[in-house]
Amino acid sequence: MDSALTTVGLPLALAIIMFGLGLDLTVGDFRRVARAPRAVTVALACQILLLPAICFGLVVLFDLPALLGIGMLLLAASPGGTTANLFSHLFRGDVALNITLTAINTVIAVVTLPLITGLAIAYYDRQDDVSMPLVEIVKVFALILLPVGIGMLVNRRSPGFARRMDKPVRIGSAVILAILVLGILLDQRENVGDYLADVGLIAALFCAISLVVGYYVPKAMGVTGPQAIASSMEVGVHNATLAIFVAVEVLDEVEISVPAAVYSLIMFLFAALWGMWVSRQVGAREEASVA
């Protein structure tokens, strides 16, 4: 898949999406950890520890081929994206918590993403033909963190402009992801049926489990309804563009990007249906408590 879509489109897409994240961020978002430590800690533990473990269990259970299994674990290691913030806003979640979680998890992913992906490669004993060179990893996270920093600077210097650009950038991010998914599916069109058969069910299960775990684990730990919704969206809605970029540009294997592409198709539907249901549950409880 050595085309303009990957050499120009993918880096540009990732930069736009991360710039959009930065437009939402301030330094105060990082300080919020001290004000809501339980919600942040539980959500991050779900995303960094529970999700990869659950994903690995599914990969082993379904006996996925090596490259698709690596792709699933790469997806599990990817942080939440700006789309999680949008879903949280639509379904009455704590968007400020989402922004904080996305920011912190993106920074943590500098370590956890190559670590988990490297372990997946080692599990399948594919070090000879699939590798993550350190210099490429550094380039990836420079491409992530630099646009975020620029977005934060724009937000600080011109908050009005940042607010005006927020919606167009979010819409653009969704359009870009759709184009990337379509490009991958077209590139792999001869194998799409087999790939869907191999990863369609596991991607759907992983998405559903992620959304449920992201809601009920924080709830069990005493996190409030809107914060639990925010956690659910953060844990269940991944930065698939990042996973696709790493698969295609760093690992140089389009097949590894297929789980992220399939997950993206499922993620929007599942997150919307789950969001509608869970927001009604939280709203009903709030009304009952007032009554």
Automatic annotation (TrEMBL):
Pfam families: SBF. It comes from the Bacteria. It is a multi-pass membrane protein. It is found in: Membrane. Gene3D superfamilies: 1.20.1530.20. This is Bile acid:sodium symporter family protein. It comes from Nocardioides pinisoli. Its main location: membrane. The keyword Membrane applies. Keywords: Membrane, Transmembrane, Transmembrane helix.
